[in-house]
Write a structure and sequence with these properties.
Strands 1, 2, 3, 4, 5, 6, 7 and 8 form an eight-stranded mixed sheet that branches. Strands 9-10 form a two-stranded antiparallel ribbon. Helices cover 50% and strands 15% of the residues. α4 runs antiparallel to α6 and α6 packs parallel to α8. The chain is α+β, with helices and mostly antiparallel strands.
C-alpha cells in the first residue's frame, strides 16, 4: 500500500510518547469515566505537563509552536485507542485558534497559557435546541448595557461543557432577526451569575465525553470579552469550521483503520466450521474492500492536512473529507462488527464501543447533509 509521507522522525517520536501516555494513564481509567459521564480534570493537567495540549500555539502563550501535523497525531492516537471521552482536540484545535487569531491580547494572555497547561478547560457553544446545524438561526442574545453585554439563551450538545472553565459562545448582538450579520463570539467564564450548566447528557455513545446544556439568564459579560468585532462571528466560524471538519475526517479514518486491524487479528484467531474466519473468501474480500477504501481515504485526508498546514485548505474539500470519511467509518465499522459475529455485540470488544461512538461523526461539525450542500455550492 502507499506509504505515508506526512510525518518525520520528530512527529513519530511525539506519537510514541503520546501513545505510551494513553496506554499508561488514560485507557485504564476510561471505563470509569464512561460510568460517570465526564473525564477527571487531573488528566487534563497531566496532558498539559507533557505538552499534549495546544501544541500549535506559540511558545509565548504556553504552546509548543509546532504545526498542525502534531495536532493530527493527537487526533489519530485518541481515535485509534477508542479514547472517545477526551475533549482535548476541541479545546486545543477549535477554541484556542479563535482566541489566537481573533482575540485581544488581554484574552490571549488570560486564557491560552492556562489552556496549554490544562489548568483551564474550554468549550465552544454554537448549537441550540431549535437550530441544529443552522448557525444563522441562533437565538441567544447579547444586549448592550453600558460597558457590558447581558446574555440570555441556551446551548445544547456542548462538548467539555460540564467541566468548562470558559466557553466561547455564539450570540446575536443587537437585532437577532438579522441572520448571520450580527452573530458574534463572546468569552463567558464559568461562575458568572446567571450562567449554569446541565448535567452530562445521556448519550448512546461517547459516554465519557462530558456533553451538556448551558443556560444564560441575564449573564453580565464585559464588552472586552468579545472575540474580534461584534457581528464578525459568523465569518470567523466559517473560516475555522474547515479545520474542525477535517478533524472529524482525520479521526474517522484513524479509528476505522485501528478497528480494521483489530478485526483482521480477530478473524485470524477465530475458528468457524473447523477453519479460521479469515480463510473464508467472503472474509478475505470484505477485508480487501475495507483496506482499499481506507487507503484511498487516507491519501485524501493526508493531502488535506498538508493543504491546511500550507494555509490552502478549501471549505469544500474539508466538507468532502468530513462527509465521505465519516460515512466510510460507519460502513467499515459495521462490516468489522459483522465479522466479529456475536462477540461484536459485546461491549468488552473494542469494535462494539467504536461502532456506537462513531455514529455522532456524521452529525456534529455540521451534518453530512449540510456538507453535501456546501460542496454543491462550489460546483
Amino acid at each position: 500500500m502507499i506509504p505515508r509521507l506526512l510525518f518525520n522522525s520528530d512527529h513519530e517520536e511525539f506519537r510514541q510518547s503520546l501513545r505510551r501516555f494513553l496506554q499508561a494513564e488514560v485507557l485504564p481509567r476510561h471505563a470509569g469515566w464512561e460510568e460517570q459521564g465526564f473525564v477527571d480534570r487531573d488528566i487534563w493537567q497531566r496532558a498539559g505537563e507533557l505538552g499534549f495540549l495546544c501544541t500549535n500555539m506559540p511558545e509565548n502563550y504556553g504552546g509548543s509552536g509546532v504545526d498542525r501535523k502534531f495536532s493530527t497525531i493527537v487526533l489519530e492516537e485518541l481515535a485509534s485507542s477508542n479514547a472517545s471521552g477526551i475533549g482535548w482536540p476541541l479545546h486545543s484545535d477549535i477554541v484556542a485558534p479563535y482566541l489566537l487569531r481573533y482575540g485581544s491580547e488581554e484574552l490571549k494572555q488570560a486564557w491560552l497559557p492556562k489552556m496549554a497547561a490544562g489548568t483551564a478547560i474550554t468549550a465552544i457553544a454554537m448549537t441550540e435546541p431549535g437550530t441544529g446545524s443552522d448557525l444563522q438561526a441562533i437565538q441567544t442574545t447579547a444586549i448592550e448595557d453600558g460597558d457590558d453585554y447581558i446574555v440570555n439563551g441556551a446551548k445544547i450538545f456542548i462538548t467539555n461543557g460540564y467541566n468548562s472553565d470558559m466557553v466561547v459562545v455564539a450570540v446575536k448582538v443587537g437585532d437577532k432577526s438579522r441572520g448571520a450579520k450580527n452573530v458574534s463570539l463572546l468569552v463567558i467564564e464559568a461562575g458568572r451569575p446567571g450562567f449554569s450548566k446541565g448535567k452530562p447528557l445521556k448519550k448512546i455513545g461517547m459516554k465519557a465525553q462530558d456533553t451538556c446544556e448551558l443556560f444564560f439568564d441575564n449573564v453580565r459579560v464585559p464588552k472586552s470579552n468579545i472575540i474580534g468585532q461584534a457581528g464578525a462571528g459568523f465569518t470567523m466560524l466559517m473560516q475555522e469550521l474547515a479545520w474542525e471538519r477535517l478533524l472529524i475526517a482525520i479521526t474517522s479514518v484513524a479509528n476505522a483503520e485501528a478497528m480494521l486491524a483489530a478485526t483482521i487479528e480477530y478473524t485470524r484467531d477465530r475458528q468457524a466450521f473447523g477453519r479460521t474466519v479469515s480463510s473464508f473468501q467472503n472474509t478475505r474480500f470484505k477485508l480487501a474492500e475495507m483496506k482499499t477504501e481506507l487507503q484511498i481515504a487516507r491519501v485524501f485526508v493526508d493531502r488535506c492536512v498538508e493543504l491546511e498546514v500550507e494555509g490552502e485548505l478549501r471549505v469544500d474539500a474539508a466538507a468532502a473529507a468530513k462527509y465521505w470519511c465519516s460515512d466510510l467509518q460507519g460502513k467499515v465499522l459495521d462490516q468489522c462488527l459483522q465479522l466479529h459475529g456475536g462477540y461484536g455485540f459485546m461491549q468488552e470488544y473494542p469494535i462494539a464501543r467504536a461502532y456506537i461512538d462513531a455514529r455522532a461523526q456524521r452529525i456534529y461539525g455540521g451534518t453530512n447533509e449540510i456538507m453535501k450542500e456546501i460542496i454543491s455550492r462550489s460546483i
